[in-house]
């Protein structure tokens, strides 16, 4: 899922574990998209925890 010009959310599996990547991509010299350095990879457990605390984050954002 594209979330910005070169930012994507991607669900993948690595060594049997489900991962959620929120990451910037870059284009190499050949024109292929490659994972960039900027981003975060969350386990399914971390992703579920983040979803649970979204209301608290939203409340904090409203204060600012």
Automatic annotation (TrEMBL):
<protein>
    <recommendedName>
        <fullName>Activated RNA polymerase II transcriptional coactivator p15</fullName>
    </recommendedName>
</protein>
<dbReference type="GO" id="GO:0003677">
    <property type="term" value="F:DNA binding"/>
</dbReference>
<keyword id="KW-0805">Transcription regulation</keyword>
<keyword id="KW-0238">DNA-binding</keyword>
<dbReference type="GO" id="GO:0060261">
    <property type="term" value="P:positive regulation of transcription initiation by RNA polymerase II"/>
</dbReference>
<feature type="domain" description="Transcriptional coactivator p15 (PC4) C-terminal">
    <location>
        <begin position="2"/>
        <end position="53"/>
    </location>
</feature>
<keyword id="KW-0539">Nucleus</keyword>
<dbReference type="InterPro" id="IPR009044">
    <property type="entry name" value="ssDNA-bd_transcriptional_reg"/>
</dbReference>
<dbReference type="GO" id="GO:0005634">
    <property type="term" value="C:nucleus"/>
</dbReference>
<dbReference type="GO" id="GO:0003713">
    <property type="term" value="F:transcription coactivator activity"/>
</dbReference>
<dbReference type="InterPro" id="IPR003173">
    <property type="entry name" value="PC4_C"/>
</dbReference>
<dbReference type="InterPro" id="IPR045125">
    <property type="entry name" value="Sub1/Tcp4-like"/>
</dbReference>
<dbReference type="Pfam" id="PF02229">
    <property type="entry name" value="PC4"/>
</dbReference>
<keyword id="KW-0804">Transcription</keyword>
<comment type="similarity">
    <text>Belongs to the transcriptional coactivator PC4 family.</text>
</comment>
<comment type="function">
    <text>General coactivator that functions cooperatively with TAFs and mediates functional interactions between upstream activators and the general transcriptional machinery. May be involved in stabilizing the multiprotein transcription complex. Binds single-stranded DNA. Also binds, in vitro, non-specifically to double-stranded DNA (ds DNA).</text>
</comment>
